[in-house]
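> agent: user asked for a holo structure of the chain below bound to 2-acetamido-2-deoxy-beta-D-glucopyranose. Plan: (1) validate sequence alphabet, (2) canonicalize SMILES, (3) run complex prediction with ligand conditioning, (4) return tokens. Step 1... ok. Step 2... ok. Step 3 dispatched.
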Amino acid sequence: MDQRFGFIHYLYQKQTIKWICLFGIASAVLMTVHVQYSQPPIIRSFSFILSGAKPYDLKDSYSAFNGSVVTDQSTQNASSLTNLSTVDNEKPDMESLSVLSILQMNELLRKSHSARNSVPSHLLSRVDQQLLEAKSRILNANVTHNDMDLYAPIYRNISMFKRSYEIMEQMLKVYIYKDGEKPIFHDWILEGIYACEGWFLKLMEANKQFVTHDPNEAHLFYIPFSSRLLQQTLYVRHSHSRDNLIQFMKNHTEMLMTKYPFWNRTNGSDHFLAACHDWAPAETRGRLLNTIRALCNADIQTGFQIGKDVSLPTTYVQSATNPLKTVGGAPPSNRPTLAFFAGFMHGNVRPVLLSHWGNDTDMKIFSRLPHVKGNQNYIDYMKTSKFCICARGFAVHSPRVVESLFYNCVPVIISDNYVPPFFDVLNWESFAVFILEKEIPDLKRMLLSISHEKYVEMYERVKRVQEHFFWHSEPVKYDLFHMILHSVWYNRVFTSGF
Ligand SMILES: *[C@@H]1O[C@H](CO)[C@@H](O)[C@H](O)[C@H]1NC(C)=O
Ligand SMILES: *[C@@H]1O[C@H](CO)[C@@H](O)[C@H](O)[C@H]1NC(C)=O
Ligand SMILES: *[C@@H]1O[C@H](CO)[C@@H](O)[C@H](O)[C@H]1NC(C)=O
Ligand SMILES: *[C@@H]1O[C@H](CO)[C@@H](O)[C@H](O)[C@H]1NC(C)=O
Ligand SMILES: *[C@@H]1O[C@H](CO)[C@@H](O)[C@H](O)[C@H]1NC(C)=O
Ligand SMILES: *[C@@H]1O[C@H](CO)[C@@H](O)[C@H](O)[C@H]1NC(C)=O
Ligand SMILES: *[C@@H]1O[C@H](CO)[C@@H](O)[C@H](O)[C@H]1NC(C)=O
Ligand SMILES: *[C@@H]1O[C@H](CO)[C@@H](O)[C@H](O)[C@H]1NC(C)=O
Ligand SMILES: *[C@@H]1O[C@H](CO)[C@@H](O)[C@H](O)[C@H]1NC(C)=O
């Protein structure tokens, strides 16, 4: 189906009003913030959003096409990467991109979650009524200031998070579709930079608390596919086309729609998936655009919808048996390097970073570090730098964000339109720095303007937020598995009843 048609089709769906509102806000924002590129092609911005897919985001991949597990670590040997610039002929249309600041993203979230229900309550099913009740209980949560387990400053609203999490534990039921064959469905890869989707899938299928075999009591329907295995299984090397992958997901979705009554009840908006590969935003367009998509490549420019979709962290797991091998780092007083970055010169942002700051003596900005065993030099820099730069590569997401948190290094995110993980509940600005790509020339001044007290405060918060990014083979409260499930639940609660 033509993507443009797909979008219009989508407009006629149940959630239309809310998304039209969001679109309106986004458009207004586009109008006002569109200044940094020379041409002002607002029209092209719209057509970009309308069409959803631009062939250029074929490029937004740092993966090898032939399936060898490739990481974006600084010390990786580039010869294992397919030359990505040959994937399609079209140059990225930089002029058509517009940038949302983190404040504008906050505003989108607020608007999205404060939209009113439009369905009269007598038309709601029992599970819908439960969701509405949950929403009301979350909005009227008892105000918590101090909590035994949770550290208030790192959340948008600790009272709401705590209440929502408790209700999830009491109430949430997830139905997992059994359809679909391995390896694309019901299978996982637990190592590498796309490991997040694999861990989630494996732990979800093994879960006893939330999984139900009775679809009638389900608040959420999970489509258990792996975007990484889809790419490994179906991408035809050198074909420069992922149309067959998109077609495959379309087929599968249409099968679910016709075989079961569940999809049509909400047009898919109580369905969800978790996908970490860079191509997942494209593979989950069309019908799947209605679902709650938990995506690592959480890029507003490729259709990520704040308030509905969930930003999945990109967790680089080196050893599936010991995913937390190295956590921790030097205290603030023992971090001599102001800021650190190392990595391939993927994309347009990193070369700019290097050309401005490659020779700076306070900041260590490298293209690649020489390869040493276990990436120890890279890890040592992260453990002894105050700030760690997470600059986008081909795609907006990077394993550096979670790595920074693990090594107690305050992340500096330079990746326009990237929605950081669990944006819906975490107060990212309290423990991370957001710098627009166009502000790179001002990077050092901006970092130096952060006082020592403020820095130490952010450092402490980084340490407190870590636990939400840990994988455990047996999930524990507030760990990464539960955070992903919670964010899907939370967004379902706030988007139900339309
Ligand atoms: C679901 O979406 C279709 C279009 O895709 C629309 O015709 C239909 O009315 C929607 N169903 C509900 C219940 O809103
Ligand atoms: C990268 O790999 C190629 C082929 O395996 C090898 O010839 C080259 O020396 C390697 N480069 C580095 C920097 O390790
Ligand atoms: C993957 O590609 C690399 C580099 O092109 C090549 O060395 C390797 O043999 C390929 N592996 C497979 C399984 O095709
Ligand atoms: C990658 O492909 C582009 C376009 O075909 C070419 O200009 C460039 O030299 C290639 N780079 C490498 C490292 O092969
Ligand atoms: C957090 O949410 C609760 C419940 O909606 C509300 O009463 C409280 O004012 C909020 N706190 C902050 C700091 O926004
Ligand atoms: C909220 O506060 C009220 C009054 O202090 C108390 O009665 C109630 O049990 C509290 N609810 C929860 C869920 O803590
Ligand atoms: C989609 O399904 C049709 C009919 O079931 C089949 O002919 C086609 O090969 C499938 N396409 C893909 C990409 O799986
Ligand atoms: C759901 O709606 C689609 C049309 O949008 C239709 O093809 C399909 O048969 C319906 N599913 C069921 C189970 O009725
Ligand atoms: C950095 O230093 C190298 C070697 O002295 C020089 O060639 C390069 O132009 C310098 N770059 C910048 C941005 O000053």
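> agent: step 4 complete. Summary for user: The chain has three domains: 3-96, 125-318+474-495, 332-469. The two ends are 26 Å apart (CA to CA).
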